[in-house]
Amino acid sequence: MLAGHFATALIAHQKVPKKGALLFFLIASQLQDLLWLSFHYLGLEPTIPADVLDVTLMSITVDMVYSHDLLPQLVWIALTFIIGRLLFKQNDIAIAGALLVLGHYLLDLLSGYPHHIFGGGTHEVGLGLYYSNVYLAIFIEAVFTAIALAYYFRVDSKRSKPRSQKNRLQIAGLFVFGIVFILSIASVSFRQWFSIPEFEAPFNTTMLSLVFTYLPMIAYLLYCVRRETDTNLKGLNGLFAK
Q1: Is the separation of the CB atoms in 116 and 68 below 8 Å?
Q2: Overall domain count for the chain
Q3: Residue 72 belongs to what H/E stretch?
Q4: What is the rounded CA–CA span in Å between residue 185 and residue 145?
Q5: DSSP assigned state of 16
Q6: What's the burial of 130, exposed, middle or buried (CB within 10 Å: 0-12/13-18/19+)?
Q7: pLDDT tens across 4-20, in order?
Q8: pLDDT tens digits, residue range 133-156?
Q9: Of 121, 114, 110, 119, nearest to 145 (Cα)?
Q10: What's CA 93's distance to the chain center, in Å?
Q11: pTM score, two decimals?
Q12: Domain that holds residue 223
């Protein structure tokens, strides 16, 4: 799941609208995936295919033992809470961040790759739909994302100064992109789509492409959400205080 995780971060920020917390929530919502990218480069979770042109959701092969297996989640949830508490000195932000990490794991059980208790020799958990039924996985993500965004915008409409239609479309556009992107590579690679000839890439373009997918999406949401949030933060705090 990609877009759905970001949707949970927006809702968390809406519930705990503290200035500066949005970036923390966005990172927390995608923590396991960001760890996966980091662990790949550290040699802990090597990922193939190395050529992004050959990638489909069904063809990605990686043992996400440290980033996504069950037991390490206890560590990531605890660390997120501790970091949130240290950074913001508030339990509500720390708890929300920890819940986002937990939510990422639970959503991946429904729509994502199969994971284990801890390591390939332990019991498998999750539906593993990216391998067994990738289009059902994408459908689940699309439905979840649509429901989450509908809730987010409905609550937003109750603000003293709701988001403009333009801003809503800017935010929603990123989620449409996320769904369309994973749908486009569900079972057919870009090389197959566009009949690109085979050639050897000098480095792992798959992971680099993922880095330049996640980070710009985070930056884009920061920009779009903050545009019509920071100036109305006081009014939003009042809404949830009622």
Answers
A1: no
A2: 1
A3: helix 70-88
A4: 19
A5: S
A6: buried
A7: 999 999 999 999 999 88
A8: 999 999 999 999 999 999 999 999
A9: 110
A10: 18
A11: 0.92
A12: 3-236
